Every structure is written in C-alpha cells, then in structure tokens.
Amino acid sequence: MRVRTALAATIIATMASAVSAQTLQPTVSVTGEASISVPPDLAQIDSGVTTEAKTAREASEANNKAMAGVLQALKNSGLADKDIQTSRLSLSPQSVPGRNPNAPFQITGYRASNRVTVTIRDITKVADTIDVLVGSGANEISGISFMVSKASKLLDDARTEAIADARRKAEIYAKAANIALGAPISISEETTPSPAPYRKMAVRMDAAAAPVAQGEETLRVSVSVSYELKQKAQ
C-alpha cells in the first residue's frame, strides 16, 4: 500500500511539474486580420404581388392569377426554375373600427400576398429582371441583396494573409523584447466574413430600366494566434 501511495504521489508531482512548466512557458498572443474586396456575382430580388378584394376567395384568385403571370414571365426571360422561389404566402382580412368603442371591428375586405425571391446569376441582368417583374404585374419590389457565390477560395486566401499579419505583429513584439519568436501553439478564427448587405431599393411600378450599382463585397477574416517566446542563443 505504501509503495502504491508513493508511486501515485510521484506521478502527480511529475504531472504538476509538466503543467507548471507549460504554464510558465512565455508566449505572445496577437490578432491577425485580412480582408478581400471583390465585385459580387450573384443578386437576389425580393418581389411579389398583393391584391385586395371584398372576399377571401376573390382576393386569393386574383392574386394567384397575377402571380402566375409573373412567374411565367420570369421563366420566359431565361431564369431557371431553381432560381425562382416562393418566399411567403399570406391571406388576411382588412378591417375598420366599429361605430362605437364597444362594437367589434368590421371586415371590409381581404388582402392576399405572394412573394418570390429571384436569384440572378448574371449581374448585368438585374435591371432587366426588375423590368420583367414590373411589366408582368409585380406591384412590390422591396429590396435587392448582392453576394459572392464562391467565397470559400477567397476566404482561404484571406486566412493565409491573416496568419501572415499575425506573424508580422508577433515578430515586432519579440524583437522589441529582445527575445526569439518560436512556433505557433494555438490558432483560432475569431470572426466570420461579413454577410452581404441587404440594400433597400425603391422602384416605381412604371419605371423603365432601373439603374443598379452592385459595388463590391468585402470578405473579412480575423485570427488569434499564440506563439512561443524563447531566449536568444548566446
């Protein structure tokens, strides 16, 4: 029993010494950053048809007919089925207050809405697609979002630059402290790329080709890196 106890104490002491040595290992932690700006190659338009009528059936039927025309026009323009997606359907009563405070609301009619998200893979056709929507009966266009379709490769390049930026900063600190910079002992990505901004866009329903400026999207990466610090050889 004493032998086992002594052996266990030795193992614990050895482990404690190793942990202590690791804890006392001098390190420097820095953050490396990189960003890449590229023109977007994808766009999404949020559009739809809203109709009102006295009855729910009339509102729904009128809306279905109008949206069918919009969808057909989009397909005729060359858009693939996979790039046309219904995003919301709704049918709700429209009401007004009663004639006195205690009277219930009176239903005056119904409003039907059908919204669709259109993905455009050729940025040069954004304005033309808006024209198709408006010309075929869409009476709501609430916004356009731009994005980069193949961001993975660009983000990998940004990660490489972020690591180089972290190394550069760590070398500055090590040189100022007159100490040698060792190998990285931990690397963690702190942030994700900024999402593509959602840009509101007002469009007149009788407008000709609407001017659209897609600008650039910026992909950002930030990494936190810890490096060993070593005494310079004499």
Question: Can you tell me about this structure?
Answer:
This protein has 2 domains: about 25-40 and about 150-195 and about 205-230, Translation Initiation Factor IF3 (2-Layer Sandwich), CATH 3.30.110; about 40-95 and about 110-145, Protein of unknown function (DUF541), domain 2 (Alpha-Beta Plaits). The protein is about 35% helix and about 35% strand. It contains 4 helices and 8 strands. The longest helix is centred in the last third of the chain and has 26 residues, at about 150-175. The protein starts with a helix and ends with a strand. The model is unreliable at about 1-20 and about 195-210 (pLDDT under 50).
List key phrases describing it.
2 domains, Translation Initiation Factor IF3, 3-stranded antiparallel β-sheet, alpha+beta, 234 residues, single chain, 8 strands, 5-stranded antiparallel β-sheet, Alpha-Beta Plaits
Helix-strand blueprint:
Elements: H1 2-24, E1 27-38, E2 42-53, H2 56-76, E3 84-96, E4 106-120, H3 126-136, E5 140-147, H4 151-176, E6 180-189, E7 198-200, E8 217-230
